[in-house]
Amino acid sequence: MLDPAMPTQLQTPNSLYLGASDSTDRKILEVGVAWLDRQQAFDCVRQALVREKQTRIAFLNANNANITIANRKYREALEGFLVLPDGFGLDLASRALYSKPFPDNLNGTDFVPGLFAYLVKPKRIALIGAQPDVLAEATRLFKRATPWHEFFAVSDGYFDRDSSGAVLDRLAALKPDIVLVGMGSPMQELWISEHVRSEHGKVIIGVGALFDFVSETMPRAPAVVRKLRSEWLFRLFCEPRRLWIRYIIGNPLFLLRILRQKLTLRRAASSWGDHEGQRE
Fold first, then answer.
1. What is the per-residue DSSP string for the chain?
2. Residues 224-262: tens digit of each pLDDT
3. CA neighbours within 13 Å on the CB side: how many for 75?
4. What's the gap between Cα 170 and its chain centre?
5. Greatest CA separation found in the chain?
């Protein structure tokens, strides 16, 4: 029987399937997040590319974690994904609940280009999302950075979600190894969960605003700011009107929810201790 004194640790079907059975997931609010370093995560994708079962990957940050509380469909969809930790907020949560941060910050903006460089065998990679010009430029720059892979701009992100047949038909015809879907969360994860099947790709990754960053449509924070894990401050400075609710209200709300989760675990541990004392 599990000891309630310990935070809930999960072994999701995806983590076991990917060969990460020695790494239990950590539950952050309502989501199991993989306890993997960068090399282990890269290895997971490499293993998934030679297996028959499709693998779906998502990234969880403080904002997305907040969304899972109010959006049950999104929360349930993530149960079918290998979820990787993104950002300083997840590290704070992990420290609070598990006494140490995640092994690595696996944000998609750095993880995906790093993955392409890591995969030395040529792959077929399909891109869906963003504005048409942004998508085209991101595709071009991906090709320039890792020319041994083939990149295909399948569709921008503004097609009718209820009429996804044409996009899915293109994917099925391409038979890609990896599909990047950049529609933002929770839309991209819900679309993947509802529409994407095994014939559409081996590894499906929800990448958010990755194409905007790769195309330099959206600037990234200077390296020193990223090293300090404060890129969110840079983004808030660049887009205050769009992002102030996410960061000024959302970040404290996320930390409050983590505190509530920690207190719940402590009460469970106390109750467990009292129960064990009565048994003795």
1. ---TTSPPEE--HHHHHTT-TTS-EEEETTEEE----HHHHHHHHHHHTTSSS-EEEEEE-HHHHHHHHH-HHHHHHHTTSEEEE-SHHHHHHHHHHHSS--SS---HHHHHHHHHHH--S--EEEEEES-HHHHHHHHHHHHHHSTTSEEEEEE-S-S-GGG-HHHHHHHHHH--SEEEEES-TTHHHHHHHHH--GGG-SEEEE-TTHHHHHTTSSPPPPHHHHHTT-HHHHHHHH-HHHHHIIIIIHHHHHHHHHHHHHHHHHHHHHHHHHHHHHH-
2. 877 777 788 888 888 888 888 988 999 999 999 999 999
3. 13
4. 24
5. 69
- Angstrom CA distances, 258 to 57, 114, 186, stand at 23, 30, 20
Q: How many residues does the chain have?
A: 280
Total-model pTM = 0.88
First vs last C-alpha separation in the chain: 17
Q: Nearest Cα to 126, choosing from 76, 175, 188, 183?
A: 175
State the Cα–Cα distance between residues 197 and 208, nearest whole angstrom: 20
In angstroms, the CA 45 to CA 269 distance is 36
The first and second tokens of residue 161, run together, are 């979600």
Q: What is the pLDDT of residues 15-65, one digit of tens each?
A: 444 444 445 689 999 899 999 999 999 999 999 999 989 999 999 999 999
Structure tokens belonging to residue 139? 């595709």
